Amino acid sequence: MKVELFGMARALAGVGVVELALDGPVALPEFLRALADAVPALVPDVVRTSRDALVEPNLLLLDGRRALHDGERFGASDNPCVLFLASGG
Amino acid sequence: MTYAGPRDLLEVDLSARSARRVALGDDVFADALGGVGLAVRLLDERVRGPLDPLGPENPIVFAAGPFASTPVPAANKHALATISPLTGLLNEGLSSSHFSAVLRRCGLAAIVITGTAERWTTLAIDGDQVRFEDASDLVGFSARETTKALREGYGDRSLRVCAIGTAGERGVRFAAVENDGRQAGRGGTGAVFGAKRLKAVALRGRGEVLVADPVATAVLSARLRERALGPKTAKYRVLGTSANLRVLQRMGQLPTRNFTAATFAGAENVTPERARESKGTYLELRAGCAGCPVQCEHLYVRKERDRRAAAASEYESVWAFGPNCGVDDLDAVLDAVARCDVLGLDTISTGSAIAFAMECAEHGLVPRDAFGPMLRFGNAAVLLPAIDAIAERRGLGNLLADGVRAAAHALGGGAERFAMHCKGLELPGYEPRALPTYALGLATCTRGACHNRAATYDRDLRDPSAARDDDARARDAIAAEDRAVAWDSLVLCKFVRDCFEDFETEAAALWSAVGGLSLDGDGLRAAAQRTWERKRAINARLGWTPADDTLPERLFAEPIADGPNAGRRVEPDALASLRATYETLRREAGTALPVG
Prior knowledge:
By secondary structure, chain A is α+β, with helices and mostly antiparallel strands. Chain A has a single domain, classed as Beta-grasp domain (Ubiquitin-like (UB roll)). Chain A has 2 helices and 5 strands; from the N terminus they run βαβαβββ. Chain A has helices spanning 8-13, 28-38, and strands spanning 2-5, 17-19, 59-62, 66-67, 80-83.
């Protein structure tokens, strides 16, 4: 599964896309564990130390367009993106 | 317990060259807290009907943040409020750093400046002394040059100065005011300075700023500082706000070529993140406000150039001259931002004015060669000549210097449909057609199209596809507006907003520890709502009506042309329904005004 990284996730990973060895649809905690295994530098600034949730205000959007529903599973064709907005001050 | 902080109001009349200090009572601080709350209260007492924003009667109000010059981090800030020459309505900006701290070390909670000086003047405040000094020799100087000259004149490098540049002197209606390299940029406060022939305010103060409960203040401040150095602010420390550019491009929400598109093919070329990643090409400098652990400002310059040419890379500024003008040349964009800082121009409005002119030129409404290089989307060469012409009010620049609303009105021929503004203030770099709550927040914002007075896009962006009813969106917009007033009254940097677990309760405790007056979370919410109501009351006296709370025609008439949000637009009936719900909820919450 390809994952697009933006902002802090991209800065910490040093790349804009990572490939995870995941087959079939997964729920968010499983996805984040795989992501943290692939890019340990994402813990703890992007992925929580518990590896089952993102650190606010990082968020996961599918194809950059919609958030996950509770318990929803998603796959490679959903184009997961780890994003954040650094809004004004 | 009485209010522990500096409590003096300095009232200055530039016409009479007089000044007097009066002590504000505890009731004022309990009511308005400080910062924007205090500035708006002082304006509310003085603006009782329509006035000419460039006339002597328009007050300029400085109001210190109540945590400035205390151990509270990310809080050396002040509010700067006046009636905007761009919108004709209330304009309250924020600036920060040493100037804010020294304001309080002069024993001041606020300054109100009225009148018009006979000749260019520096208002010099030295502790409890006030002088009106001839500033004729500073005319034409940038804010930075003005600061340098005044420091040399005083022989004091610690002098703190806020000043205008050429744009403010020439009355550009979106001229900024700068101190310590920070700008109160939006809404044209710099033009009000210029109309008063006020070139600069110089401060020297070494008084002690007392806090009511030093132990509690230290504990709460240390907790906030620790959080502000953690992951909640890492994005600002490491990347800065410009990281939005790639994100919004991916989401198809990057306003491009004056909002005629929502994705920009050249986005990757112009993102400052790319400069950061190519360390062999660009030098990255870091800066930030005094007493702030975040140090959010990221400046870039090509390594072969003088580092003094480094430009700030804030998202809004890069967006204004990059995607919004169709320019994909990062160096040209950074040079445009730097030129605006030298001349004292708001980058959002300046970029928007140039994008407006580019579109007008495409439709034959203005000459293609008005600024020399071809005036068209994507032509980086036109940016600097256009910026200079605006600041100096030359040719087409003179027209644009009044803002896109006035320029469109003067041009006619349908130019209004290219003028992207709310109540006269040009739009920032988010796409309202894809962000319904943000669209409402832009429409209702008392300042015009400001993204910082209600960060309503936050909720939309967290789930862009969510179906939410009017009630939920209107409640979100109201909550965001009131919370922004609370932040801006305290005045805390919004970049630490994720560092609180229960913002109202924790921030109220901090205010009580510092100021000594009692406040809890509900009290903070109530104070914020009072200030919001004052803002709208001031605007109503200046001629605002509910019909003004709308959006540019393009957002209704033209669907997004490209990207994943293609086809979306703001439905007029949908916005009307949202606004009606918003007004009902505002009335139920106690808004005193008849608001439509």
